[in-house]
Amino acid sequence: MSPETMLAVVAGAAAGGLINGLAGFGTALFALGFFLNVMPPVQAVAVVVVLSALTGLQGLWVVRHAIGANRRRLARFLIPGVLGIPLGVLALSVLDARSLKLVIAGFLILYGGYFSLRTRLPRFERPTPVWDMAVGLSGGILGGAASLSGALPMMWCALRPWPKAETRAVLQPFNVTVLALTAAVLSLRGAYTRETLLYIALALPVSIIAAQAGIAIFRRLPDAAFRRLLIAMTFISGTVLLARELI
Prior knowledge:
Strand content: under 5%
Helix content: over 70%
Structural class: mainly alpha
Low-confidence stretches: none
Distance between the termini: 26 Å
Mean pLDDT: 84
Shape: globular
Order of helices and strands: HHHHHHHHHHH
Number of strands: 0
């Protein structure tokens, strides 16, 4: 492994871990830009899903009490999301993944840009179990079809006036579960070669340490600031996704 490769892996792990600790998602968006410079796409994804899932376990511990107190809400997202993964995989036979990513990127940019400019965010306070399940199912389908499981849950949760711990108690378990299942599928396909495991061994400690820094920032954020962070992350996610697909 050359010094340039090691530097790219460490930088990607640090960037992905920091945002995962801060927001509870986003590892792939920030790490893949570094990893794809030194790894083939399948190998880069294989590394990043492991980092996302294992690093995300720290975030789960931080909001464990909120998860327990809101387990029914989480189930409304998570169960349909898991069921949606195979539907997304099947959808790949009739959909073009790149076109789907471009559509979602445009939607993320419009959504994030619009709400970033508003001084007051909407507040959907009443329970919406049917919409929660629909968002979870759609997230699972997008995860199976285009590795975009977190896009719709992130947008939906950002508009709910939940405390930051409750918001993260939905997003983090959702993403950790979907990514863990993705890693299992990649493992069955033989993606975890000796070289890939070496990359993971190098990146994982860096990602865990960076996530701790992100978690420290998360703990100091007011609830309103965390909602604004999610909105900003929506815009950034769409911009990064669009750039990656067009360049």
